[in-house]
Specification:
- There is one protein chain.
- With 346 residues, the chain is α/β, with parallel strands linked by helices.
- It is 46% helix and 11% strand.
- It has helices at 29-43, 67-74, 79-96, 113-118, 147-150, 158-165, 171-177, 189-198, 203-210, 223-229, 235-244, 248-257, 262-275, 281-295, 299-310, 328-335; strands at residues 5-10, 13-18, 50-55, 102-106, 109-111, 123-126, 131-133, 169-170, 182-183.
- The strands form 2 sheets. Strands 1-2-3-4-6-9 form a 6-stranded mixed beta sheet, sandwiched between helices.
- Helix 1 links the parallel strand 2 (13-18) and strand 3.
- Helix 6 runs antiparallel to helix 13 (262-275).
- The protein starts with a strand and ends in an 11-residue tail after the last helix.
């Protein structure tokens, strides 16, 4: 039994309820393992016809992963960090390939690890509280948990934009981009869950009945700019395009990128570009595990966690300090396959 996640069968639904309210339900290794075990048990359980994923109490759906632990491990031998990534990515893959329908309720903050457990679901419910982002470049990490798969499949250059800037989307924007399948008022969620648990076959009609029209997606006003300014093959090219643009929006994006880890931006841009040509989610996760096992022990990640999460001075000293100083060889080394006995598998 893991106190950080509540696992139960309710009616004909298997329920996964994240329960780490003080950490906005950020995932740790034990939570991922417990969820994996539950999914395995429910796979062949005739009572369970559908799986519902939400959070039990407090704000936010899931703010990410156990970043402090990963950084502490990365500063040492990296073993606990690799164990976390290995387990979390197996959970992501199990959800992605699960035979029974899954409904994820992205009510509140849905970032990093929260994206990894909601995007594989057949039904992804956004609300007026949803705040969806992959903000990893700000702490020297990269949009993992399948980010290279999901972001690369967004229209135009939105994947590049979200990966590099960590921009937060609201629920209406998630619906417009296909990151959510339904938009419900938060007050309707308990009713939706109860009705779906009682009659799993009605899940789609229940969500459609309770859905309300979403506000116009604000990001739509910038689609053309995103496609034009984030089209370059390199981070340097994106920065140059933003710097040359006289508009206020471009200036704001440039200011945002100036705060991010240059190495992380290069890794993230390549991840999205490579992700478009991947043919299986397992292949994506194997690549992300190779990257994660290296980045967890990198200077920028340990420094990013120090600056933004531990000391909170918000003044990370990135090294290298500029995109120009991050060599192609350094990025190639991060993406290189792991030795055969260390590779990730489902």
């Amino acid at each position: 039994m893991n106190a950080d996640v509540i696992l139960q069968v309710e009616g004909r639904a298997g329920r996964i309820r994240l329960h780490r309210p003080k950490a906005i339900h950020a995932l740790n290794t034990g939570m991922c393992r417990a969820m994996l075990d539950a999914l395995t048990a429910w796979r062949d359980d005739p009572v369970v016809e559908i799986v519902l994923i939400d959070h039990a109490e407090g704000r936010g759906f899931c703010a990410g992963g156990d970043i402090r632990m990963i950084a502490e491990s990365g500063a040492g031998d990296g073993g606990r960090a690799r164990d976390f990534f290995r387990t979390e990515y197996r959970l992501n893959h199990a959800l992605f390939t699960y035979a029974k329908p899954i409904v994820a309720f992205m009510d509140g903050i849905t970032m990093g690890g929260g994206v990894g457990i909601s995007q594989p679901a057949r039904y992804r419910v956004a609300t007026e509280n949803t705040r969806f982002a992959m903000p990893e470049t700000g702490i020297g990490l990269f949009p993992d948990v399948g980010g290279g798969w999901y972001l690369s499949r967004l229209p135009g250059k939105l994947g590049e934009y979200l990966a590099l800037t960590g921009h937060r989307l609201d629920g209406a924007e998630c619906l417009a981009l296909g990151l959510a399948t339904h938009y419900l008022p938060a007050e309707a969620l308990d009713d939706a869950k109860a009705r779906i648990a009682a009659d799993p076959a009605s899940a789609e009609s229940v969500l459609a009945t309770l859905a309300i029209p979403a506000p116009a997606p604000r990001i739509a006003a910038h689609y053309d700019e995103i496609d034009r300014l984030f089209a370059a093959d390199t981070v340097e090219g994106v920065v140059a395009a933003l710097a040359a643009d006289p508009g206020e929006w471009a200036a704001a994006q440039l200011a945002t990128l100036r705060t991010k880890s240059p190495q992380s931006m290069k890794v993230s841009l390549r991840l999205v570009r490579d992700g478009r040509s991947r043919t299986s989610f397992a292949e994506e996760m194997a690549q992300e595990y190779a990257i994660g096992s290296r980045v967890a022990q990198s200077h920028d990640f340990i420094e990013g966690v120090r600056a933004l999460i531990v000391d909170k001075d918000n003044a990370p000293a990135w090294n290298p300090a500029t995109p120009e100083a991050v060599s192609d060889a350094a990025v190639d080394a991060i993406f290189a396959p792991l030795p055969a006995d260390q590779q990730w598998e489902p």
